[in-house]
Amino acid sequence: MFCDDRIHFLNTGNSDAILLESAGRFALVDAGEDTDNPRGLPWLDLPGYEQRVLAYLKAHAADDAGNVRLDFIVGTHSHSDHLGGFDTLLADPAVTVGRAYLKVYDSSRINEREIRDWDNQEVYDQTIAALRARQVPIIAAPDSTPFVFGNFKVTLFNTDDPVPDGKVGENDQSLGVLLEKGGTRIFLAGDMDDYTGDETRLAPLIGKVDLLKVGHHGCQGSSTPAFLRTLSPKICVFTTGVYDHNAETRKSIRVLCAPQMYFTVRENGVLAYIGDGGEICCRGQLHEKETAI
Q: Which CATH class is domain 6-284?
C-alpha cells in the first residue's frame, strides 16, 4: 500500500532538491542551485532554481492557509548546487522549518582549487545566517541515530569525518540519507564519493536498497562498482540529465544492477510512490504545468 509516502525529485538542472512526504508531513533534502554569485566569478554565473523550489513547496506541501511546514531540512554539503536555495526558502514567511542538519564547513580541509574557484564558504555562511534569522535549530554535528519521519525511519550516513591524508573536496563531507518503510529502502547519496574511501566504508552499513539517488549526479569518483554491487538498487534516479559526464556511471549501473533509470532533467522531475516490501512506482513530469525554466 502506497498511502501518502512519496519522494519528489525536483528538476533543478544539475543540482539536488528532494522533497520528502510521509503521512502528511514534509521535509527537504537540499534546495537546488541558486542565482547568487557572491564573488562575481563568471563560471559561477549559473541558472538558479530557488523560485521553482519555493513554488513547488507552496503548490504541493502547503496547508489550507498556504503555509509550508518542513519537519526538517538536510543540507548534504556546502556546495551551491545543494545549499543554494535554502536562504530564499527561509526568507519566505510562509515557510517554517523544525530543524536543520548541516555539518560545519571546514575550509582548512578543502583543496586549493575549490577555495579559489568556488563559493563554498559564501553559500554556507548565507545558509547559516538564514537559519539563525528564523531561529531554526541547527544540528551541526549529526550522528547516525535513526529517527522517525511519518512512516519512514531516517538514518544519516557519513556523519563522521575521518581525517584524510591530504586536503579533499567538499563532496567528501556529503551526507547520505537512508529512508526505510517496512521492507522498502531508499538511499539518497548526495554527492558522496570514494576518493577517500567513503563509499567503501559505508556500503556495508547501508546494505541493499530498492531505490538509489545516484551520488554526485553520476559523475566520476562516485558510484564505484563495489558500492553499486553492495546496494544493488532496482531503481536509480539521477538528479541531472543524460549527459557525457555520467556516461560511465550509467554503463556501470546497467551492467551491475540493470535497474530502471530516471533523470530529473529528461523526465522534468520524478515522483516516487513508496510502498512496502520494495514496492515503488515512479512517474515523471512533476513540473508539467509550469512555464519551462
A: alpha beta
